[in-house]
Design a protein that fits this description.
It is a single chain. Strand 4 and strand 5 form a beta hairpin. The chain has a single domain, classed as Methylpurine-DNA glycosylase (MPG) (3-methyladenine DNA Glycosylase, Chain A). It has three helices and nine strands. The chain is globular and about 40 Å long. Strands 1, 2, 3, 4, 5, 6, 7, 8 and 9 form a nine-stranded antiparallel sheet that branches. The protein starts with 7 loop residues before the first strand and ends in a 14-residue tail after the last strand. It has 202 residues and is mainly beta.
Amino acid sequence: MTIRPLGRPLGRAELPVTTVELARFLLGKILMRELPEGLASGRVVETEAYPPGDAALHAYRGITPRNRSLFKQHGHAYVYLCYGVSQMLNVSSEMDGIGAGVLFRAMEPLAGVAHMMARRGTARLTDIARGPGRLAQALGIDRALDGMDVCEPGPLWLATDDEPTGEIGVSTRIGITRDAHRPLRFYLRGSRYVSGPGRLNQ
C-alpha cells in the first residue's frame, strides 16, 4: 500500500491550466517520491515558468521525441539531462498538445532526509535540494520518470498539506540566455532553501 504522509495527493482539476499560474501555485506544495530505500518528500520553494512561445522553452521549435512530455496534459513529468551532467524535473503546464512547462528549482526537505543526504553526499540540510540538479539527485529523478502522471499514484506525485503559501517573490530566470529578461522565476520569500544569488531573492 502506498503511504502518503504530509498531506493529500493533488488532483489534476486543482492545478491551474496556464504555465505562469501553475508555477506560482506549486510553491508550498509537496513533491513525494518513493525511493527503493524509503519515502522522500520536500516542499517546493522555487519554480520557473516556461510558457508557450518562450524562446528558452524546450518545446519552442515543436514536438520531438525528447520533449514530447511537455505537450502532455498539465500534470505530467518532463525530465531531461542538462549539459550531460544534471537531471532536471519539470511538469507540463498547459492543455494536451500545447508545449510548455514549469521547472522545479528548489525544495525544503521534509521526509526521508537521511535518504536524500546519502544520495547527495552532503550533511548540510540547506544543500540537499537547493537548485534543480540537486533536487533531482536528492529525489532520484531520471529519464525513467519522464512522462509520468504526477496527479496519479506512483513513484512520484504532487501533494498538499493546505498550509498558507506565504509571500511569493519574482525575478528573472537563472542560467538561460534566450528570453532571459522575463520575470518568470518564483520563490518563497524568506526561505533558506531557495537557490540563486541573493540579489534575485529580495
